[in-house]
From TrEMBL:
The lineage of its organism: Bacteria, Bacillati, Actinomycetota, Actinomycetes, Kitasatosporales. NCBIfam families: PRK09061.1. One of its GO terms (molecular function) is hydrolase activity, acting on carbon-nitrogen (but not peptide) bonds. Residues 45-470 form the Amidohydrolase domain. This is Amidohydrolase family protein. It comes from Streptomyces coryli. Signal peptide: none annotated. It holds the Pfam family Amidohydro_3.
Amino acid sequence: MQILLRGGRVLDPGTDTDAVRDVLVRDGRVAAVGPGLPAPDGAAVLDVSGLVVGPGFVDLHSHVHTIAGQRLQAFDGVTTALDLEAGLMPVTRAYADAAREGRPLNYGFSASWGAARAQAHLGVEPDASMASTLALLGDPGWQRTSSPAELRTWLSLLERELADGALGIGILMGYAPRSDPAEFLAVARLAAAAGAPTYTHVRELVEADPTTPVDGAEELVRAAAETGAAMHHCHVNSTSRRHVDRVLGMLAKAQGEGSRITVEAYPYGAGSTGIGAFFLAPERLPAWGIQPSDIVVLETGERIADAARLREVRASDAGAECLVEFLDEDKPADRDLLRQALAYPDAIVASDAMPIVWGQGAYDSREWPLPPGGSTHPRTAGTFTKTLRLMVRETGTWSWLEAFRRCSYLPARVLDAIAPGARAKGQLGVGADADLVVLDPDRVTDTATYFDSTRPSAGIHHLLVGGTPVIRDGQLRTDAYPGRPLRGEPV
């Protein structure tokens, strides 16, 4: 298949190119970039004048291992959606399931620290599903400090997962925040020895919980310095909240001293997780500066009335997806905190996209438009387009080229060492993967809201994955499943 994109504003953060050019795609790769390229015989020619053409967005933090969720992410400009914070286990099954079912977007998984601990502590055999991961979050059995034998067991499981193609190690430390910090160092040493990145949801900050075994941000900084591991700080906006100044200052100092730390953020004032998470216990909420009424159950829309009701829901369905309102986007000071996290030098945009639920355990659908009644966090549908609207069009904080650097180029570079296939992503050099997004710079925006959360974003004209159109002329190709795995190759 050959496609010629004619006359668009081409943005290539790999070469700092921002110019009107043509882009020729052949056999899943970028074959040529330049002005006035001739159209080969049989090539489809798309007039993209007035539109922006760039490398598709690489999302390092997506939990939507489904066709429905990936289709929403396609309209957000994403061409590669990876679950690296939580991961799935066993990765061999996760990759096999995705290949068998088909995926619109490229996909990949980290080794799941939480699932490995659950197997070592509880004998729970993981099934490589997000539903089981959410249910696991509220089980205290895997959250405690490991015995020496348990530690050896789950470290060995993580080693096996890396050997089987995991893209590093995903560490949900925030969900086991009373565990011994020595265990985090053990994981970092393992990752450093394997040449694999870690992706951490850090434990609580000391300002929120003075009794924490170690400040979450400080723990990550120490581990990076002591082990030399490449350490990615997940959603710094939601874990830092109103202490983002201190956290970003600490990270900047560590980076300046040579630590291999990368940072991600998303542009929403509410998070989403399983309601049984450790930090959503009623007695823990004051540490977050929130109350039960700041928690909303996604499937039912119920806003939790009080601590008694929260305990009841956590006991009956610990894996129920919920919204957690930690910043008020209607307040200028809180909006500034979100922008501050995104504006941090080299901060990567990542969605933390969540599964779509329809009730009765339904997480997926091949129907398009999506069946009514589905709910998720709006970041599933709108993280990247909302960031473009806020950071480029409305505030001018970033240029368009810088936006593609944050959304495409930098996330791909996080993976270069562990996954050689990533080197062909996030840029438009000849030979690069033809993962491309074509968008209207004046119209691109999110449309999903917290309570109308499955509305696709607007302004994406074309989306190519491996040279195959998933979106063409603004319409989803429902027969397109060109997604391919991105696998790790540890040293």
